[in-house]
């Protein structure tokens, strides 16, 4: 079956997470977790679902950009696309009249990610496999030695899952009381790795990091995330002041485009045992290449919607492997956990074969709006089994959260 794409629809779907400060950080103080949600219809009835993540009002701009590229997709068959996926990727990213907006960065790239995510979802559904398995089956299996026993990596993942860390205990806008409660709950559920938001006020950061350490103890892992708040010198002195709390990494210490700045920060913090992590706003593979070449990061944080979907993320996974830098994907947003779990499973099974210093982010928000939500067991992502890329949303959720006409928003606006 050819699966000719007959239409592409895109909707602006937003969740009012800012009301309770979920997802807040030093630069995004009032995020409403949102998606530009894409559905591809085909002549045989099969659909493909895709999304890209944003944090509120920006979604309307991404929706326009998706509409602008729709004409490059509608009318093509899945077979035509996947038989020359590289050519199709180039068609989307190199359109003569739209390339000026990027190239391969910003709003237009987010839009292309949403569309390509839907195409990959369609392909995996057509093959009757979860996306990670579609990718794994494309390359040959290898056997790795894992601790004291031999297990194929795929079997290992199906049994144990992929290790995760949580960001949900310590968004910047949460009170100390809430932070304590959420840490207590998370520890009971088996979490051992925690990320705390920092960057707005040094004294606050010291208090919150101290509290986190008290709650999680000396042996669990702590990471800090500044969301680009500092300049280079400020980042070095600020993080040095937080070194006593033993963070494994500082994430996005400065502008996401400042490769040499990250290199300077990495060099300065190495003696303190603190690495630099970045990637959620690293806009394409070329940037990642230079970050790796400049030893400017010690943890690669791929993002399933920032880069040009699976296509570009695979290139980054391979480069990270070449440079022997662990990949710890970003997933702080709606739908990002659902998507990126497929990529990190593929990374482990077919590329890195290692779990050393590796973990995938998890945030405990909004999974109930997906038809195949992530399954977390004992702080591990369990491999998804349903065909596709796990980003189909419940139609009822899409309708009630569509902006501005959905019930959820009309209620808020009429208050
Ligand atoms: C605005 C988002 O919630 C952002 O804070 C997420 C992030 O930085 C992370 O998960 O890491
Ligand atoms: Mg972050």
Topology at a glance:
Layout: E1 5-14, E2 34-42, E3 47-54, H1 59-69, H2 78-83, H3 85-93, H4 106-127, H5 131-138, E4 144-146, E5 149-151, H6 153-160, E6 162-166, H7 176-188, E7 193-197, H8 202-216, E8 221-225, H9 232-241, E9 247-251, H10 259-269, E10 275-278, H11 285-293, E11 299-300, H12 309-322, H13 336-352, E12 360-362, E13 375-377, E14 380-382, H14 395-401, H15 407-413
Parallel strand pairs: 6-12, 7-8, 8-9, 9-10, 10-11
Antiparallel strand pairs: 1-2, 2-3, 4-5, 6-14, 13-14
Helix pairs in contact: 1-4, 5-13, 7-8, 9-10, 11-12, 12-13
The chain binds the ligand C[C@H](O)[C@@H](O)CC(=O)C(=O)O and magnesium ion.
Core attributes:
alpha/beta, 14 strands, TIM Barrel, binds the ligand C[C@H](O)[C@@H](O)CC(=O)C(=O)O, 415 residues, binds magnesium ion
Q: In words, what does this structure look like?
A:
The protein is α/β, with parallel strands linked by helices and 415 residues long. The protein has 2 domains: 5-128, Enolase-like, N-terminal domain (Enolase-like, domain 1, 2-Layer Sandwich), CATH 3.30.390.10; 134-382, Enolase-like C-terminal domain (TIM Barrel). The chain has 15 helices and 14 strands. Strands 7-8-9-10-11 form a 5-stranded parallel sheet, covered by helices on one side. Helix 11 (285-293) links the parallel strand 10 (275-278) and strand 11. Helix 1 crosses helix 4 (106-127), helix 7 runs parallel beside helix 8 (202-216) and helix 9 (232-241) packs parallel to helix 10.
